[in-house]
Amino acid sequence: MTIWNLGSINADMIYDVPHLPGPGETLSANRLDRYLGGKGANMSVAAARAGAQVAHIGAVGPDGRWALDRMTEYGVDTRHITGVEVPTGHAIIAVDAQGENNIILFPGSNHAITQGQLGQALSSALQGDVLVMQNETNLQVESAKMGRDLGLTVCYAAAPFQADAVQAVLPYLDFLILNEIEAEQLQQATGQSVTDLEVEHVIVTLGSKGARYYHRGAATDFPAHKVKAVDTTGAGDTFTGYVLAGMDRGMPMAQVISQANRAAALMVTRHGTADVIPDLKEVREARLD
């Protein structure tokens, strides 16, 4: 089976800072690194490194050839990524000494994907394949509708969070992944808790506390591993990619989430985004508390 990812592709410019800057503050960074990123690219790389067959649907600008080369190197099918004249998306990320971050995002070519491109890509999808989206591209609703009509398992990672974006795709979803704050924001916007949603599978990630899985409203908690975090950037995307790969392989959900927790725990011990996502061998062999 294949995981189809309508996803963003960014250059992540990561600044190592002594603390996260406040309003009006000018702050000198200790270090600058450029990584392949974007929630979409991160998820595609994570799923591929977890052993899944992943086809990415997206766009890059004239400055984005390096991103395609990296994604191909990491095992992602990039044939459905189009070159456009709009600059490739990028993110400016500040990471402090405790591993916390803040992010400024420029969408760029991630909002230049065409409906024709989307339709051509998904014409190769088979019933039972997985389709995932995030809130960093255009055509999310169109993609969700198309996925439902094609009999795909439609998943949505609700970040960056916008309540109206989530509500627009909710009728077509089989799986929703969001964090604890996003779940609260969705409840405030809709008046519904995650247990009220008509979505079969919901995962609420809880940061250092782990994750909570809801299956038709019934909740199961999965604790996180205790590690020393140096950079939380991309940890949620790594978790999601591993969840999708496990689902695609037909693993029991408890095993899927436990393995994804291990991958996310390893990820926060590393500086970077897609380029440092652990592969399945590393995840299985890692010694974690």
Describe this structure in words.
- The protein is of the alpha/beta class.
- It has one domain: UDP-N-acetylmuramoyl-L-alanine:D-glutamate ligase (3-Layer(aba) Sandwich), CATH 3.40.1190.20.
- The chain contains 9 helices and 13 strands.
- The chain has helices at residues 39-49, 65-73, 115-122, 140-149, 163-169, 180-190, 235-248, 253-267, 280-285, and strands spanning 2-6, 10-16, 31-37, 53-60, 77-83, 89-95, 101-106, 130-134, 153-157, 175-179, 201-205, 211-215, 218-222.
- It has a 9-stranded mixed sheet, sandwiched between helices. It has a 4-stranded mixed sheet with strand order 3-2-6-7.
- A hairpin with a 5-residue loop joins strand 11 (201-205) and strand 12.
- The radius of gyration is 18 Å and the shape is globular.
Short description:
With 289 residues, the chain is an alpha/beta fold.
Mean pLDDT reading: 94
CATH class: Alpha Beta
Secondary structural class: alpha/beta
Strand order of the largest sheet: 5-4-1-8-9-10-11-12-13
The largest β sheet comes out as: 9 strands, mixed
Counting DSSP E segments of at least 2 residues, the number of strands comes to 13
Reported by name, the CATH topology is UDP-N-acetylmuramoyl-L-alanine:D-glutamate ligase
Tally of separate helices: 9
**Uncertain stretches of 5 or more adjacent residues:** none
Rg from C-alpha positions? 18 Å
Assigned CATH architecture: 3-Layer(aba) Sandwich
Helices and strands, in N-to-C order?
EEEHEHEEEHEHEHEHEEEHHH
What's the number of structural domains? 1
Give the % helix: 25-40%
Q: What quaternary form is this?
A: single chain
